[in-house]
Amino acid sequence: MAITAKQNPNRCPPHPGEVIEDMLEDLDFSKSAIAKMLGISRQQLHAILAARKPVSPEMAARLGKLFGNGPSLWLRLQAAHDAWHAEREVDVSAVPSLSVA
């Protein structure tokens, strides 16, 4: 019997930058070296790590290549983070709900 973890709907999914930060703790590279490997500035990397900047599809491709896990993981992390915030911050009260027959 498989056990699946349920995510607390009140807890924001991690920004990809948090996941990268955790991964970097296990690696023996400076953030400057990681930025150089990714072909981006240190400022750009720091903005992602601080969750001030989202992971774009292009950045997801770079991260996927660097860490060997492909871009899909990074895009899913960003989408989950964005969707959680959108559900709480976007006023949709005036938008009707359609039902398909």
TrEMBL record:
One of its GO terms (molecular function) is sequence-specific DNA binding. Residues 20-75 form the HTH cro/C1-type domain. It comes from the Bacteria. InterPro entries: Cro/C1-type_HTH, HTH_Fis, Lambda_DNA-bd_dom_sf, Toxin_antidote_HigA. Keywords: DNA-binding. SMART domains: HTH_XRE. It holds the Pfam family HTH_8. NCBIfam families: antidote_HigA. This is Addiction module antidote protein, HigA family. It comes from Modicisalibacter ilicicola DSM 19980.
